[in-house]
Structure formats: C-alpha cells, structure tokens
Amino acid sequence: MRYAALTLALLCLVGCSAAFRGDAMREADLPRYRHPGGAKVTLITVLSTQDGSGAHSALIVNGAQRVIFDPAGSLSHASLAERGDVIYGANPAVVDSYIDYHTRNTHDTVAQTRDVTDAVAGDLLARVMDHGPVMQSFCAQNVSALLRATPGFEAIGPTFFPKTLMERFAALPGVRTVRFSQPEDRDKRTDFYGWIGQKPKFNIE
User: Fold this and answer.
1) Where are the domains of the chain?
2) Which residue from 134, 125, 126, 92 is spatially nearest to 111, judged by alpha carbons?
3) What pLDDT does 24 receive?
4) Contact between 72 and 134 (Cβ < 8 Å)
5) Has residue 59 got a pLDDT over 50?
6) Which secondary structure element, helix H or strand E, spans residue 81, and what is its range?
7) Is the confidence at residue 114, as pLDDT, over 90?
8) Phi-psi bin for 154: left (phi > 0), alpha (psi -120 to 50), beta?
9) Where does 80-202 have alpha helices with state H?
10) Residue 202 burial (CB < 10 Å; 0-12/13-18/19+)?
11) Are strands 81-83 and 176-180 parallel, antiparallel or unpaired?
C-alpha cells in the first residue's frame, strides 16, 4: 500500500508535464553543432520561485555535437530539430531559447556544468540519442539513470525529484553553477532567437 501511494505521488508531480514527443525529423536531416571549449555535461534544473521545489530536469551534452536531452519536456516549436526527447543543433541561440522559455517570474533555471573527457561525452551522447521518449513526471528519474551510468557521475543515485538530483550533482568535484532569473517575465512564451554568432544571453559556461 505504501509503495502504491508513493508511485501515485510520483506520477502526480507537476514537472515534466508534456506527453510523448515523436521523431519529428529523420536522422539525415538533423543539424549538428559542436560548441567550442571541450566536452561538457550540463544539468539543467527548473525551480519554483515560490517554494524552491524542482519542476524539471534536462541535460545538455557537448561532445562531437551538442544536444539537449529534454525528457518529457513541454517546449515545442517548428524551428526546433527534435527527435524523441532530444533537441539537436543546440547552438547558443537554441540554448538561449530553451532557458528563456523556462525562466520567468514563477521559475528560475539552474545550469550546472562539469568538464568531461571526449570519450565520456561520446558515450553519454550515444545513450541520450538512443534513449527514446520519456513518460510524464519521469524527467529526473531518466536523467539520474543516464548520469549514474556515466564514468565520474556514479555517485548520483536514482531519484524522481529534480531538486534532489541538482543537489547531488552539486556535490561532485569541478561543478560550475549559474542560476538564471527573470522576475519581470510573466509570460511562458515560445520566442526563439536566431543565431548569427552572437554571445549567448544565458551563458551556461
């Protein structure tokens, strides 16, 4: 009975609220972008500004290319190159658009970045791209599972809670953290930036 109640509570989490997203593009049509500066893994956590609770978890992986793994995410736009729950061609404008969408008066967005080897990034990229769509309310569970199977991230245990995952990630050595706030932004817009080589608005480095 206790297990059933816990399962029901987890399924009722307000974050990660989108339904399955299909394969919007064929593999041959997917854009590729590799961000300069070496291989990196960035954990994205969306936090409520009201009570500090976690609303969503996502991963940005930069290796041979940079992608955003957005499990059960709610962001959708015709200009996004999506396949399953992976957003491809994650250039600075795409990342800016992603963070801007989640950051408003009701929510802050935290980016935690850690340098990794090319081999670690390549392995994680492969598993992210092969992962497939995620059910509602299972964003942190899927992100934590991917991370704890990654060399250097084994200390991250399984969790359904984005804030718990963020705190465990913060305990790893070499993590750089930045928090984005937009208290005057009251609209959950889907505005997208065009990239012409400009510096990022939301620098996750």
Assistant:
1) 2-180
2) 92
3) 54
4) yes
5) yes
6) strand 81-83
7) yes
8) alpha
9) 92-102, 118-129, 139-148, 162-170
10) middle
11) unpaired
Structure tokens of 96?
């800016």
- The answer to whether 106 touches 49, Cβ cutoff 8 Å, is yes
Model pLDDT for residues 14-46, shown as the tens digit of each residue: 456 554 455 555 676 789 999 999 999 999 999
What's the CA gap between 178 and 196, in Å, rounded?
Answer: 24
pTM of the model: 0.87
Distance CA 155, CA 124 (A): 16
pLDDT digits (tens, 9 = 90+) for 72-97: 888 888 888 888 899 999 999 999 99
Place of tokens 């791209």: 129
Query: Tokens at residue 169, please?
Result: 């990630």
CATH (residue range 2-180): 3.90.1720
Give the whole-angstrom CA distance, residue 73 versus residue 84. Answer: 11
Helices 139-148 and 118-129 cross at an angle (nearest 10°) of 140
